[in-house]
Amino acid sequence: MNDGLNDGLNDGLNDGMNDGMNDGMNDGMNDGMNDEMNDGLKYDLTVIGGGPSGMAAAIQAHRLGVSVVLIEPDELGGQLRSANLVENYPGFPGGIPGRELADLMARQVHGLGVDVESLTVSSVQPEKEGFELVCHDGDGTVALTSRSVIVTTGAAPCRWDVDIPDDVRDLVHVDAWDPEMFRDRDVVVIGGGEAALDRALYLNRHGARVRVISRSRVRAMKLLKDRVRECYIPMETGCLVEDVSRTDGRLQIRTADGRRFEADHVMVCIGKEPRVTILPADVRDDLLSTSPDDGFMVGTLFTRTRYPGLLLAGDLVSGDFRHVGCAVGGGLAASLVAVGHINNGSEKK
Ligand SMILES: Cc1cc2nc3c(=O)[nH]c(=O)nc-3n(C[C@H](O)[C@H](O)[C@H](O)COP(=O)(O)OP(=O)(O)OC[C@H]3O[C@@H](n4cnc5c(N)ncnc54)[C@H](O)[C@@H]3O)c2cc1C
C-alpha cells in the first residue's frame, strides 16, 4: 500500500469534508455552546454521523422524547448527497436525485428542532454512566457525555494502491463535491461497481466528458450499464492502472497492459470500507471477528455491541446492503433500542 497515494486520496476526501465542515458550520454552534460542552454537555442519546442512517435515528429518538444530538462535521446527507438518481427508495416515483433526498431528510431533522452539532468525533469510550465522546471542530477539542450512542459513520472510499505524484494529487478525486468543476472536462472514472457508474452518469449530467475504466468486468447492475451505454460513455475493462502522471497539465493514465488514457481529472470509485476508527478497540475487534473476510463488514442493518447502549447502524455495518433504505431502517431500529436502554436501563431484544 502506497503512502503517497493514500495521502493523496485521503487529502481529497478530507478537503471535501473540511470544506463542507466550514461551509456547514452549524449556526447554533457558538462560543457559549463550546464552553458548555467543555464542561461536559450531556445528552440521553448521541448520534454520530448525519447520513441517512443517523438522520433516521435522530428523528425517531426526538419523536420519542429523549434528548438527542446529531453530530456531523459536513452538510447533512452523507454519501447520499453524491448519488445521481435514487430510484429504489419508496415514495419517489420516477426517482429523486440523492442531493434532493438528502435535503428533504435534513429539512425534517432541522424542522423538528433536533440539535445538530458541526463536530467531528475522534473517539467514543464507555464510562460508568454511559459514554464519553471526544470531538473537535475548528476551534479545538470538546467533550460530550451521553447515556447511549448510535454510531452511523458510514463508509469511506477504499485506498487505491497506485502511486500518485504530488503534482497530480489535486486532480485525483474520490467524490464529486462540486460537479460543476468537471464541466467540459475529460474525466476518467476508475471502477466497475454501481457507485462508479452512478458517478459517471452524474458527471455526464453535469457536462463532463466521461470514460469508465475497470480492472475486471463491470459488476454494476444491468440497468446502470444500459444507461451508461445510452449516454455513449465508453466503458473499458481489463484496465489495471499502473501509474498516473501529468504532462502539459493533462493526466496520463497508464495501465498494466500498456493502454494509455488522457484526462483532466481522475475519479476513483473502487469500493468503500466502513469508518470504524472512532470505536473502542474491543468493539472493532468484535466486528472483525464476526466479519466474513477482512472487511469489517458484518452485513446487518444495525447491531448492538458488547457495551449496552452503544449501537452501530447503516453502511458502517451493512456489508453489501449499502442502500439508503437499509441505512434508514437500521438507524431507526437502533434508535428504538437506544431509547429502550435510556428509559428502562436495558436494551429491548
Ligand atoms: C455515488 C453513490 C450513489 C449511490 N446511489 C444509491 C442509490 O441509488 N440507492 C441507494 O439506496 N443507495 C445509494 N447509495 C448508497 C447510500 O448513499 C448509502 O447506503 C447511505 O448514504 C448510507 O448511509 P449512512 O448514514 O449509513 O452512511 P453515510 O451516508 O456514509 O453517512 C455517514 C456520515 O457520517 C459522517 N461521519 C463520518 N465520520 C464521522 C466522525 N468521526 N464524526 C462525525 N461524523 C462523521 C460523515 O461525514 C457522513 O455524513 C449511493 C452511494 C454512492 C456513494
Q: Can you walk me through this structure?
A:
By secondary structure, the protein is of the alpha/beta class. The protein folds into 2 domains: 15-156 and 273-344, FAD/NAD(P)-binding domain; 159-270, FAD/NAD(P)-binding domain (3-Layer(bba) Sandwich). Helices cover 31% and strands 26% of the residues. The chain has helices spanning 3-23, 31-38, 52-63, 98-112, 194-205, 222-230, 281-290, 324-344, and strands at 41-48, 68-71, 115-117, 120-127, 130-137, 140-151, 155-157, 172-173, 186-190, 209-213, 235-236, 241-247, 250-255, 260-263, 265-268, 272-274, 302-304, 310-313. Strands 1, 2, 3, 4, 5, 6, 17 and 18 form an 8-stranded mixed beta sheet that branches. It has a 5-stranded parallel beta sheet with strand order 8-15-9-10-11. Strand 5 and strand 6 form a beta hairpin. It is elongated, with a radius of gyration of 21 Å. The model is unreliable at 1-38 (pLDDT under 50).
Order of helices and strands, N to C?
HHEHEHEEEEEEEHEHEEEEEEHEEH
Amino-to-carboxy terminus distance: 42 Å
Question: What is the typical, i.e. mean, pLDDT?
Answer: 86
Query: How many strand units?
Result: 18
Q: What share of the residues lie within helices? A: 25-40%
Within CATH, the superfamily of the largest domain carries the name FAD/NAD(P)-binding domain
Instruction: Determine and state the CATH class of the largest domain.
Output: Alpha Beta
The name of the CATH topology of the largest domain is: FAD/NAD(P)-binding domain
Instruction: Tell me the fraction of residues in β-strands, as a range.
Output: 25-35%
Radius of gyration: 21 Å
